[in-house]
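[audit] Reproducing an earlier prediction to check determinism. Same input, same settings, fresh worker. If the C-alpha cells differ from the archived copy the diff job will pick it up downstream; this log only records the rerun itself.
[audit] input (86 residues):
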Amino acid sequence: MFYRTQREVAAAINKLVDAYWQEEIKEQGLISGVNNIFDNNQNKILKNNQFTKVVQQQCGKRRLEVVDKILRNGSDKPSLRKDFDA
C-alpha cells in the first residue's frame, strides 16, 4: 500500500506492530506487512539509511527495533538489505 505522508506510514507501522504484540496477527503477517510497507514507501521511511525523524517520533524506539530487525534479517530480498545497511 502507498501512503501520502510519513505520518500515515508511521500510523500503519504502529497498527501492524501493535496487532502483532496483541497476538491479532502472526509473525509471518507482521513480516510481510512491514516488507510491503517498506517496498512501497521506502523514501518516506528512510533518509540517509536511518529512519526519518517523523517516523522515529511517531513509532517510538520499541516498534522501530522490531521493524529494523525485520528489514535487516527477515527479508528474503537482497535489495532491501542492501538499501537498508548502515
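[audit] rerun output stored. Observation attached for the diff report: Residues 75-86 have pLDDT under 50 and may be disordered.
[audit] end
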